[in-house]
Amino acid sequence: MNYRFFLLYIYILFLTINVVKSQENKKKYIKTGQYSWENFVNKIENQFGINIFYNPDSITDFEFTLNQDSVELYSLLNDLFKKFNFNVSSDLNNNIFIFKHFKIQNQQTFIVYKNKNDAKIKKTGTDNDNKFLENYKDLITDYKVIGLKKNKPVNGKVELSGYILNSDDKTTIPQARIKIEETNQNIITNFDGFYRVSLKPASYTITASSLGMEDEKYKLTVYEDGEFNIELNTKAFLIDEAVITANYKNKVKSTLMGFEKIDAKSIKKLPVVLGEQDIVKVALMLPGVQTVGEVSSGFNVRGSPADQNMFYINSVPIYNTSHLFGLYTTFNSDAINGYSFYKSNVPVEYGGHLSSIFEIDSKVGNKNKFSSRGGISPLSSRILIEGPILNDSSQNSFLISLRSTYSDWLLNQIDNVNINHSSASFYDGLIDFTFNINEKNNIDIFFYGSEDEANLAFGLYNKYRNIGGSINWMHIYNEEFMSELNIVKGQYNYDIENFDIPYLGYSNSFYLKHDELKFKLHYNPNENHDLLFGINTKLYQIEYGDLLPLNNESYIKSVDFESEKASVSSVFLSDRWDVNESFGIEAGLRASYYAFLGPKTVYSYKANMKRDYSNIMDSTRFSKNDIVSDDINIDFRLSAKYELNSNFSIKASYNILHQYISMLSNTVSVSPTNKWKLSDSHLKPLKGQQLSFGLYNLFEKGKIETSVEMYYKTVQNQYEYKDGAELLYSRLPETDIIQGDINAYGIEVMIKKNEGQLNGWLNYTYSRSMVKAIDNYTGEMNNNGMKYPANFDKPHAFNLVLNYKLSKRISLSTNLVYSSGRPVTYPTSIYRLNNVEIIGFSERNEYRLPDYFRMDLSINIEGNLKKHKFSHSTWAFGVYNLTSRKNPYSIMFQNEDGVIKGYKISILGKMIPSITYNIKLGHYEN
Amino acid sequence: MKTNIFCIIFIFVFFVGCKEEFTLDLQNYNPVIVINGYMTDDIGPYEVNISLSSAVNQYKYIPYSGCSVFIMDDQGNEEMLYEVESGVYRTSELGMQGIPGNCYSLYIETPEGNKYKSDFQKLSKAVEIDSVYAKLNYELVEYYPFELPGYQFYVNTPKSENENDYLLWRMEETYEYTANYHLYAIYNGQLNFDIREYDDYYRCWMTQNVNYFYTATTEKLTEPRINKQPLHFVGTDSKRLQVKYSLLLKQYSINKNAYNYWKNIEKQYSEENFLVANQPYNIKGNIENVDDPNEIVFGYFTVGAVRQKRIFVDSPDVPFYYMFCSINEDYKEAYAMLAKRGNPHPFYIVRVGEVEGAVAEGCIDCRKENSTINKPDFWTD
Q1: Which of A777, A814, B196, B292 is most open to solvent, judged by the fewest CB atoms within 10 Å of its CB?
Q2: Which residues contact A113 (CB under 8 A, 6 or more apart)?
Q3: How far is CA A201 from the centre of its chain?
Q4: Which tens digits make up the pLDDT trace of A881-918?
């Protein structure tokens, strides 16, 4: 409990410290008058016949007082703006420029454009009546010369390359755009923020842009090969919109299908349960992503089981992503920069999971100054602290985030014996150190931990934990080569104790260690190819933990479970080849060697018979690190895109993937106490294939993005449980499992509006997922070998997310979710045995629960938007399940004194309001 | 019964509705044959029940008449059972006796010509009952905001000779109870004290089967004995513990397959943890259609030795929560009003201390369906 009080104390401390008034732009001048800035500018311009240029969005209208009669204009302006880091400069014609990053130099020439789309080159100094337009398009350009004129090659091209960087923290910006007006080229920076373009020696006008950043325009004369880095500033005072992709052009341009990149800003705007932002819940609103129920802790992507998705945070593997029975996700969204979600076309650098990869990036600490933020919501509180290490000038920073709940305290207050004797609590946290050693080397050290503990009054205790760390070293050799080395250690474990019936009390624990070493080499020989080569080794170690009697009262015989160990060593190679302007191909290959290692005792069973204890023939004993069974598999990925025009493209992709670890579960939803199992002599690795095809179109100059994606996938060797399998005591899981097949197909339609006062997205998916559980080796089958719908088969799914900017400080957001109910095995008859009514059931998953519908709403009210203030706070009011629909999670049948009663169980079946208070140091944009 | 802890957490913490009763609307319903029979080492006769399953909304007992039922042993003996009641088939008093060590199987032929048979199962030696006892306990039940007092029953078995025992417990309860009040007089305009017969209707006994069963095994235990296995709980929310309560425990020593069957049935009907709902399925018994092994057949032919033990427990000194009878003191006026409309029924008057008034008939007459005013033979006083 101590650390929770500590958190509370910190908040109170911050709140009391924040008595510093936000600074206003008032200086003590002798009163000659009070002005608003815009009026002042007009007055001066008219009075003196000069032009004052500034960006109206950077300098909004404000009030100030002139308290001196005669003050030089230039120094007045200096006084007014210098403290905000604006440079005030003037040219030979007495035009005054007030900008943050621009200053008139002596030899500098400048060119003024009327507007972005209608570029007109104006010569220097001759035209006094060029004025900027009132809207905030940045029109000043900067002029650079690259190379010496005398060195220019007579024929042929030169190469211009460089990085686009975020000027705040100097991080590179992937998928940013550089437009070259004269050649009408659009170049996109790669994942490392690097661009390269071949040009004939000449003068060009280039504009660098990225969503959320202010455009930068440059005039360049290029004579030789050269490097030109561009820094972009974050747009100030721009209210965040629910931005989904980094650059709208990329959906059409890139060869990636089923890919979503979600940044922190979009996460913040969606309404969630109990006021906690949740990155996983955002993913649920994307097409093709489903869950089996409200508080299920996994999700299903394109008709596949939850264990076929893998989560990584800064390369650390996470095996259970939920707290409190699925209500919260184990990541503090304040600490998350964003994530990449690959839901079909998985890049070859990842392997081992058939359905999707979630690569979550944590934020990097602020390199310039110390900052902090946090929040309090009805059930939990969180805090984040970041800042530079050592001093401001180094490029090193740290970031610490912690989140915890006071649900224990809340449960104690409830006036019910069952509840106030139960407890449930969690915490999660992460620490990140970033060392930018020099411009060619960057090291990131990251730690993550999360833990959940629940003690239920009726004799069940359970604790589970995910911890891990990673070291990432990025090294740039030159413009063509870059490498990345990852060393990762991760662990998932849980402990359970059952003391419901004392003489049967037991305890059991489970450990899964997942360590990885990955080395990637990027090779960019030219702008048409992006090659990736690498090696990746994973080591899985699973300890099942003996089943032990809980205490002296228990008569349970302890059961020994053998541990498991396997290594997967892979080599991968991929290339993205832009054949020409419209056609691009991406291909990848990943060859893996899977070895299941001893010590292990392997049993052999009578051929073609039930794999059962009664059919054991023999056993073989393997020693430590002997290869018990091994497998070589090739993952393959091919995708192609064809752009009919800059707004429309067609894509197709095919991939084959293999998976070596599966979750053991015979329940409908994911429980934190499910174990994992590696493929071995009896249980073959899973193999998945997917074929997908998509159409992508942009409307309204990219403001509206639409896509239609179709897929067909199969999974072989899927673990399906024999009916009634008792997993807890099972020493030989292969006797409980039938390896069957899954066939899934679907079509996903998505419409997104990225910009504007009203933005959001809408998607509809029709999909089916069917299971056939007939084991190829033993012939055993479930459901008499007949196909049945998977537990998460939901034919129709519809999601709507809308954000509306009511004003600069208030925004509304709403979610609408509709889906078919999940399949369920219904009781179809009753009969009586031993004076007890027993239920007879239909075929597996023959029926369906009622449809799911939910609407959420939230309002975000930001504190004032002054740029300089000590702290900024936000109130978020939300309602989850606005229509109070009791969406059934499952149907339960209970025998109540001889009468069978059916109940629809719904969780969160009423309107749940929430209030969250968030606070952070600095102004809101940080 | 255990309450659903996850459900309750959510109800109270998040103030949400949790369980909503609902009725299924299923069109296709095909009755399935239900066969339930026991073969034990107890003195015969042995009974096999054959019925049909009913639609899920409404349980109805649909007996299946006219079947030919045979029990065979592995010594070459065979006996045909007689239908003594619709759907109830019984061996004769002087017929086959269950002998530990022998194997028995069941064979049925329905009037439609379908043939069903079970496998041969060995009647194993009985595991004895060491003790059956009750402990006063307070249990949380869903419909009470507090803990309900009552007796929790337990059973112990002695250390067994066998390494692995499989047990099934069924229970029958008999309890003595009384009406709430002694009848003082009957009022039909005036008080009538000729009520001697009502003396007999004050004290009753009820015998019924307990609607739960339990299973356990010593297979996973260090010591081959059962220690403090909880059976059912009898709360003070009914009259069962009002005067005296007797439990007759029947302990069946069954084989592993029978144990798995009953254990899975037990798990399914007492399934509480809905958050990680187990995939339900039809639990396969040991009887199959000879011509179509894939046909769904419900029920089991259980073969096992049986031991019985009876215990008595006295009424505990704790609060009781069964319905109390309200006494209407203004009965004379009420009767007069009814009399105006013609033919009022007689009022039953009781006297409790200073209070005198009318009560419902059930408050002075303990008789109910299946109850008796005659003390059972085994009843101790």
Answers
A1: B196
A2: A119, A120, A121, A122, A139, A141, A217
A3: 42
A4: 888 887 877 777 666 655 666 777 776 667 777 788 88
| CA separation, residue B179 to residues A60, B192, B324 (Å) | 87, 20, 11
H helix runs in A651-801, sequence order: none
Q: Within the 151-180 window of chain B, which residues sit less than 8 Å (CB to CB) from chain A? A: 170
Tokens of A279: 């990155």
Q: Which residues pair with B96 in a beta bridge?
A: none
For position B18, what pLDDT does the model report? 58
Instruction: Give the residue on B whose Cα is nearest the Cα of A720.
Output: B279
User: The pTM is what?
Assistant: 0.72
Classify the complex by whether its ipTM is higher than 0.85, answering yes or no. Answer: no
A588 contacts: CB under 8 Å, gap ≥ 6: A347, A348, A532, A572, A573, A574, A575, A635, A636, A637, A638
Q: Which residue of B has its CA nearest to A547?
A: B220
Instruction: Tell me the C-alpha distance between B141 and B139, whole Å.
Output: 6
Q: What is the DSSP string of A582-643?
A: SEEEEEEEEEEEEEEESSEEEEEE-TTS--SGGGEEEEEEE-TT-EEEEEEEEEEEEEEEEE
CA B232 to each of CA B147, B212, B265: distance values in angstroms, whole numbers, following the listed order: 16, 7, 16
Measured over the CA atoms of residue A304, residue A308, residue A311 and residue A315, the dihedral's sign is negative
pLDDT tens-digit series, residues A790-849? 888 999 999 998 888 888 788 888 889 999 988 888 778 888 888 777 878 888 888 888
Neighbour count for residue A921 (Cβ, 10 Å): 22
Q: Residue B294: how many CB atoms within 10 A of its CB? A: 8
Residues of chain B contacting residue A828, judged by C-beta atoms under 8 Å apart: 26, 28-30, 56
In this predicted structure, which of A598-607, A619-628, A885-894 has the lowest mean pLDDT?
A885-894
Tell me whether residue A649 is exposed, middle or buried, using C-beta atoms within 10 angstroms of its C-beta: 0 to 12, 13 to 18, 19 or more.
Answer: buried
Give the C-alpha separation, A313 to A335, whole Å.
Answer: 11
pLDDT digits (tens, 9 = 90+) for B148-184: 899 999 999 999 888 889 999 999 999 999 998 899 9
Are residues B147 and A456, on separate chains, in Cβ contact within 8 Å? no
